[in-house]
Amino acid sequence: MSNLPYLIDESARSQDADIWFALPAGFVALPLLELTQEGNSTERARPGDALRPLMEAFPDLSSRQQFLTEIAPVRRMAQVLLEAGTIHCSLGLHADDEGDGGLLLALFTLSWRTTDWTPRSVLASRAAASTEDAEHIETLDLPCGPASLVQTRLTGPPEAGRAAGRQLLQVTGYVPCPDGERIAILKLATTAVERGPHYRILLRDIARTVSFDNPLPDVSDED
To answer: The CATH number of the domain where 61 resides is what?
Structure first.
């Protein structure tokens, strides 16, 4: 695993970056702002451009059309996520190896929550304990500090298209910032509610990569 290459997004080298994380294969970052726009301007990235890496993974036109049908609700959800303060969103697409081999879609989001100063372990525990109807709660000891993980089920909102009204599985990681005044909230949502243990493992792995200190080597873009 240590020999696998990572693709570094340009935002990771931004002077304003204050959190870093890594996603496994199968996830593609979605530019929320562009997804909410018409995309008629050649100066802006169109939704089709944002989804191109996933589109190219399908061998035939029929599969691509099915995928576009499935992804349509994500575009509608983009506006909702922006209004909720989401700063990153990625779409996960994986084959259901334990089922019929179909596609399993997952939505990963990252947002911030501000709070009064509190010890980080208390912040993590309090965030988990305040979750209503939690099916699973656990504490995490991450390289970046204490955190918690919660699994819940919710109903897809009207903006979710075909997933509207359907039961969704959501796994949430609460990772307090070292300043004790903010919590990074990592979420994985999917309609594959029977895959709870797998998505908990997936979010744990993502949470373990979270860093509040720049983990990238101090090299130039040319290097």
So the answer is: 3.40.1000
Q: Is residue 218 part of a domain?
A: no
The residue range of the domain holding 139 is 12-208
In a domain, 221, yes or no: no
Tell me whether residue 215 is in a domain. Answer: no
Q: Are 180 and 166 in contact (CB under 8 A)?
A: no
How many domains is the chain partitioned into structurally?
1
Q: What is the pLDDT along the chain (223 residues), one digit of tens a residue?
A: 345 566 788 888 888 889 999 999 889 888 777 666 644 333 344 445 556 666 666 667 777 777 666 666 666 777 778 878 889 989 888 877 776 667 788 989 999 999 999 999 999 999 999 998 899 999 999 999 999 999 999 886 665 555 566 789 999 999 999 999 999 999 999 988 998 999 999 999 999 999 999 988 765 444 3
